Amino acid sequence: MGEGDHCATAKVRVNGALAQATLCTASPGADGGPELRWRCGVGTTAERVLSLDADVLGVEARGKEVVVKAFVAGAARSLSCAPGSGKGGRKRCRRDYVFEMVAGEDAAAAWGDRIRDCLDSLGRPKRLFILVNPFGGQKCAKKIYEAEIKPLFEAADVNITMQETKYQGHAREVVSSLDLVQYDGIVCVSGDGVLVEVVNGILQRIDWEEAIKIPIGVVPAGTGNGMAKSLLHAASQTYSVPNAVFAIIRGYRQSLDVCTILQGEKKFFSVLLMTWGLVADIDIESEKYRWMGSARFDFYALVRIMNLRKYCGRIRFVPAPGYESYGELVKQDETCAVGCQEQNGKSPCSYQGPSVEFQGSEWRSLDGPFVAVWINNVPWASESVMAAPEAKFSDGYMDAVIVRDCPKTDILALLMKMSDGSYVKSPYVTYLKVRCFLLSPGQIVENPKRGGIIDVDGEVIARGEGTYGKKQNQDVMGYGPSIQLTVQQALATVYCPK
């Protein structure tokens, strides 16, 4: 018996027991969207509910049965339970709910079509191109893909094309020539490195203005995983591979700022962070201990603190409103401008950076020596380090963390408070938002013949003489000349939890 255009009821059997089910494809439910309800038994008041948006992956009609493929917190929520049940930190799991339609196969087919149409109307992606990095982290990405990622996409009836990356920079090459019309989104199964390559590959395309509109999904399967952690944490979701996959399946989107990093004619695009000093040294020099997993960072942090380095150098920045009191006014005429010349009203080149220009009167400066300089685009640098607690995904600003003079004992205390971001409250930490940033890196105070490392999104873009892994002409940029960062608000798009 029907209940209007958007609701239908039917007698079903659930685990052999007769029940009544109600499918509402437009009325607001517990999560503000369409839902499937059923009573646990004839004559009872207990009712269970699945939100088609928040709980359901897909549906399949098998003869007289309707199989609802769900991803739920524990079991389906009981409306008669205490407030908050089924929400919060409960672990989600895959579960099939089987409804045998008393009215037979035609009724099952009709309900299956109705649920499928409703899921399709939610704007979920149907065709995804997936890049899997088998070398990241502890080299488990392929296993994670087969065991946890692929089954969820298949249950959601998503058509997936998977490609493994074979070397550093491969993802950038693939995306730069990929026929994006064939896909609704790109998914990165890796640490943050593949995400960065994907963004750089898109922005080096001639058709970047259309290409950058494609949503990018991030599934954590590497060492850093700062973007995945940031997205899940912002939605109060538990950090996990299945939750990241389900966020992509649901299809909700978040705009993302992109930073352009320039040194002369050399260019790189960043979506997470740039570090120089202590944090960069820990991140890159600990590579030799990669076999330790994420514990390598904690171990090497102690090594670096015991032999603390300070770097000569200078930073200049255009502060965001409210941060104009930081630093000293720049006396010389400093400018910051990027852009691509148009020809006949059209851009003949790949993305060049934001079309902005700041005059010398807007600049401030800080001189070294520095212990650490950390520029962030999102709150989490990794799954366990909240580097920039005030960072937003698309506010048009970068969050700068600067440490100049700090005793070793206090450095250790700062590192221990990075898990919740409270370290930024230390008097030794300068935390501010900036619109443009210039880094002029120098040598180690204790060893003037040796330079430092500049790390962008987990990859080295410049390193001075005597640094770990230094090879001639290896890096994107040179160490010493100024490196400029500018941000374009909401340039890219990522899949995010609701």
Detailed description of the structure:
This protein is of the alpha+beta class and 498 residues long. The protein folds into three domains: 7-121, PH-domain like (Roll); 127-251, Probable inorganic polyphosphate/atp-NAD kinase, domain 1 (Rossmann fold, 3-Layer(aba) Sandwich); 266-489, Tumour Suppressor Smad4 (Sandwich). Helix content is 21%, strand content 34%. The chain has helices spanning 105-121, 141-155, 170-177, 192-203, 208-211, 226-234, 241-250, 278-285, 295-306, 408-416, and strands at 7-14, 17-24, 35-39, 47-51, 56-62, 65-73, 77-78, 92-101, 127-132, 159-164, 185-190, 216-220, 253-263, 266-270, 273-277, 311-319, 328-329, 336-337, 357-358, 364-367, 372-376, 380-382, 385-386, 398-403, 429-444, 453-456, 459-463, 483-495. A hairpin with a 2-residue loop joins strand 13 (253-263) and strand 14 (266-270). The radius of gyration is 26 Å and the shape is elongated.
What keywords describe this structure?
alpha+beta, single chain, Rossmann fold, 3 domains, PH-domain like, 28 strands, eight-stranded antiparallel beta sheet
Low-confidence stretches: 76-88
Q: Report the sheet with the most strands, covering strand number, pairing sense and barrel closure.
A: 12 strands, antiparallel
CATH topology of the largest domain: Tumour Suppressor Smad4
Helical content band: 10-25%
**How big a fraction of the residues is strand?**
25-35%
Which word captures the global form? Answer: elongated
Category from helices, strands and their pairing:
alpha+beta
For the secondary structure, the number of strands is 28
User: What is the domain total for the residues?
Assistant: 3
Distance N to C terminus: 34 Å
CATH class descriptor name of the largest domain: Mainly Beta
Rg calc:
26 Å
The average pLDDT value, as a whole number, equals 89
Tally of individual helices: 10
Could you say what the CATH architecture of the largest domain is? Sandwich
